[in-house]
Amino acid sequence: MSAYTQGTPADVFVWEVPGKSIAVHLSLDVVDQILPDVLRGFAAVPKRGAEVGGILLGNVEKDGDRTIVHIEDCEMVQCEYKHGPSYLLSEEDLDAFDETCAKWESAPGGIGPVGFYRSHTREGMKPEPDDVDLCANYFPDPSNILLLIKPHATKPGTAGFFFYENGRFQDKTYLEFPFRRRELSGQGPEVRRPLGERSPERPAAESVVRRMPTPMRAPEPKRQAPELEEQIEEPPPRYQEQPLRTRATEQIQEPLLHPVREQPYAQIALPRQRFRWIWIPLSFIFLLMGVVLGFQSALSWGGRVGASPAPETFVLGLRVQKVEDNLSVQWDRNAPAVKISQKGILAIDEGGAHKSVELDTPQLQTGGIIYRVSGDNVKFRLEVFPRERSSVAETTTWHKE
Description:
Blueprint: E1 2-6, E2 12-16, E3 22-27, H1 28-44, E4 53-63, E5 66-77, H2 91-105, E6 112-119, H3 129-138, E7 145-150, E8 158-163, E9 176-178, H4 181-184, H5 247-257, H6 273-276, H7 279-306, E10 319-323, E11 326-330, H8 336-339, E12 343-350, E13 353-360, H9 361-366, E14 368-372, E15 377-387, E16 390-399
Parallel strand pairs: 3-5, 6-7
Antiparallel strand pairs: 1-2, 2-3, 4-5, 4-6, 7-8, 8-9, 10-11, 11-14, 12-13, 12-15, 15-16
């Protein structure tokens, strides 16, 4: 078994099995086109995820006894999910699938349907009877293939090709591969280096030199003549060769170092006793302002407490209906409480068994989930949290008829 990429830069993933007469050349652009739809469907339904599918487009090349299937494009075909989150096509879905196949079969340019792809969120990793029937009707040629993609929440999804062997698909793919461009192109996952090694070393010529602020120097006195140099008794500059950060301290200590220097502003300094009585009227003014502001706040909040919220604020529109063997649990995603909530909890009580499903904002906005029922009575309670310490809840019960 072997798989590798080819092209410059690597843009085609080659899937082939030694001893088998078929090989697949998968364009990495097709991987980039399919993967976002697969992940959106996987995140749409809690716990399991919804499946998506469509048509693989390309051409078939004969190389002696070998068949090479080139996959160069694809087109997703929507599903109404009348039978749950699995990709099981209804009559309307099959009509759309038939129109899409017919469109590409008559399209010019040498590209057409070469197979079927589907994301797989069920147990295991093998074709289901519905996949076999669909391929038998639309892709019966021995060169046609089936691609199954299994998404994962915390790591890249895996995929595998299936082809006709003795008139039927394999129960297990001969070779699984990661379904993401980074791994298929040979780059591998990004390796995180330790924090101290994140920044590449700079060459010596480009090393960063941090400069300290240039200290300010006091102007030196002009010297009259060399012979008078000994007669000048000037003290050394006070700030010479001193960092900027110590100047404030020196200025504070300056009167202690030079007590003979006169401070002209010291004679007009106000005595401390004159400031004591000023705080009395200021305290009275602040107290009066506090009373006025408190009275206004009381009036404002009093009007708010008296107003009652609209009744529709607490309506979630929770309802349940039977769809084949499942229950479709739905709520009004446009309800005010739902629209402003950051999270929600759907509590399910079935035959004494209790379970809870946490819903984030995107899941709340989907407006519902699919629940596989096994009993005769199921109680649902939806609670949303418009604010941090407030919640709105609604309960409904389904009974088997």
